[in-house]
Amino acid sequence: MSAREEILARVRAAVADAPDAPPATRDYRTTHTAPERIVELLAENLADYRALVHRTDEKGLPGLIASLLADRGSATVLAPPGVPPAWLAALGPGITRIEDNPDSTARELDLVDSVVTGCALAVAETGTLVLDGSPDQGRRRVTLVPDHHICVVRVADQVVGSVPQAMPRLDPTRPLTWISGPSATSDIELDRVEGVHGPRTLEVVLVEG
Amino acid sequence: MSGTYLGMPAFPVAAKAALGNETLRGNLRHATHTIRDKRAKAVAELDDWALLREAGKQIKDHTLRHLDRYLVQLEESVTAAGGVVHWAGDAAEANRIVAELVKATGETEVVKVKSMATQEIGLNEALEAEGISAYETDLAELIVQLGDDLPSHILVPAIHRNRGEIRDIFRDRMGAWGRAAPEDLSDVPADLAEAARLHLREKFLRAKVGISGANFMVAETGTLVVVESEGNGRMCLTLPETLISVVGIEKIVPSWQDLEVFLQTLPRSSTAERMNPYTSMWTGTTDGDGPSAFHLVLVDNGRTDTLADEVGRQALRCIRCSACLNVCPVYERAGGHAYGSVYPGPIGAILSPQLRGIGSEVDASLPYASSLCGACYEVCPVAIDIPEVLVHLRERIADRGGKGHRLEKAAIKASGWVFDHPKVLAAGERAASLTRKLHPSRVPGGAAWTDSRDLPELPAAPFRDWWKKNRGEKNRGEENRGEKNDQGGKNNRGEGTAT
């Protein structure tokens, strides 16, 4: 008998006399947050886990991104192909935009200073951004290897209150990355330290209007 | 890594040694108290916690009851998404499968995401025997691996080490494994994390094979989920060309929606965060993004035996959050190593003897490594009644007539005879009081139970004698006939502080 058949047979024998266990009742809450509190809560929870939160409107976005990159002294910024050109329209002359080349190696990405992406959605109660690999978010590695990530959230249609509200809006066939604050570790005496392997600086731009 | 759990002494011996280590106790006390307080706050934010806990329990119970169906469904979903599913009955089979998969890539190095399942099967050692180096990339696992040490906690495996010890390990050992730590490395956590970042980035950027476990597998969609903080998981899951995930068969949830329960309860229970910094979800392979080959190795290794035990099977609901470790008074004092098992603490005390069987002395001792205070059950986000399983396993061990239990039974039998013969008891008490300076602090030559417990100090005089002298004038000569003493007892109620 193959390992597969043996394991399945053992499982069947093990539960043959077990009592019935029906599917779960879902009487927990769909959300814990009143709709008018959602955006504020998202901003608070992102900041609580040490993401840097900025707020602007469509018009102010290019200027804000340009100043965030300049303040950090970034010389190169990678933006996946689906990032609207307007977002990077105000970059100063010292900053070069790099396209994400599917053949680029992790070592090449390691030399990039900053990355700018959109997101699939954001979850207020947990302070979480979810990326799903859409053209404005790029491959998983582009938001991982560079040390500085600027993520743009469209408040009007991308913010949900809770995890249960997020699930039906996500497509499990896509690779998903949930990001809640920058890379952190608590492995040394349980002191939280930002940044071990992922970007050590996460800036979130909430775009209203 | 040469450290191994094989041949570890049974819990009482290991715990006694650990109790003498003041640094260890200090490190543990600080860590467990910090995290248990934070956890309580994180849980209090959700006023439907009890309902989420109940839903989590029900989802897992339903899955386990129909595990055969969900395993087959998962296999279909993963295969349809471009993955390859392998089945392993035990640790040796799982290790062989993984080693062959790595060899087929022509690589001799792999990077690893922290995984309880691969620790359980001893994968690193098995790969080493095949000439393959497995690099742990979680900061705590790196500390453990470089220190030639063993993990002592499910979530924070190096919880038993303080910053000074970690600095010494990095300074002394990093160079032998790759990029050395800076000469002047301090013990500031940020500097230690930076040294780990530089040391490991070198490995991530050249890795061709990654090995992971998974927190969840969704039968309906074939999606695997890894929950982590540092980004080392994301590195291992997305940069290599080949990804091999080694996962216990109990890690299934039926539907995509089920994740909404555990993504709320797991982070709050484990790191006390609303959400952990990074969660990765992948379904088979994706063109142009991440590994081009994905293998899922489904591991039994004692899980079907556990499933067959009607009381013990609830241990398979465990989502490895480690909340039970952090509230356990026994874990806090003894530390994770004393359990002689990959799974320490209360969950380890019920899971390890079920996965491995109760044949060895270590495993037979684990169900006794508890005060049955119930704190572990209170905090468990899937409501595993750990005390119930502990008592059940003690019964099973008793039925087998284990050595420790036979001694215990003999002791109870002997004391029963003494209690049935009051004059013998009275004489014994008097003799005990008169010789109390000579008594050992523990019962000599005893079993595990007595070894781990101090004897109470004996009073200068037996209570019977004190009673006779101070209160018992009317009842002199009748001290052995309880019913006659009722009157005096009532009159003196509330003053009974004599002993």
Automatic annotation (TrEMBL), chain A:
Coiled-coil zones: none
Source organism: Streptomyces liangshanensis
Domain LUD: from-to ranges: 93-207
SUPFAM superfamilies: NagB/RpiA/CoA transferase-like (SSF100950)
Gene3D superfamilies membership: NagB/RpiA/CoA transferase-like (3.40.50.10420)
Domain of life, per lineage: Bacteria
Protein name: LUD domain-containing protein
Pfam families to which the protein is assigned, alphabetical: LUD_dom
Transmembrane segments: none
From TrEMBL, chain B:
Protein origin, superkingdom: Bacteria
Region described as Disordered: spans on this chain: 438-499
Residue span(s) of domain Lactate utilization protein B C-terminal: 395-469
Biased composition regions of type Basic and acidic residues, renumbered to the chain: 465-487
GO biological process: lactate metabolic process
GO molecular function annotation: 4 iron, 4 sulfur cluster binding; metal ion binding
Keywords for this protein: 4Fe-4S, Electron transport, Iron, Iron-sulfur, Metal-binding, Repeat, Transport
InterPro entries in alphabetical order: 4Fe4S_Fe-S-bd, 4Fe4S_Fe_S_CS, FTHF_cligase-like_sf, Helical_ferredxn, LUD_dom, LutB/LldF, LutB_C, NagB/RpiA_transferase-like
Cross-referenced Pfam families: Fer4_8, LUD_dom, LutB_C
Domain LUD: 73-285
Residue span, 4Fe-4S ferredoxin-type domain: 315-384
PANTHER family, per database record: LACTATE UTILIZATION PROTEIN B (PTHR47153)
Name the UniProt record assigns to this protein: Iron-sulfur cluster-binding protein
Organism of derivation: Streptomyces liangshanensis
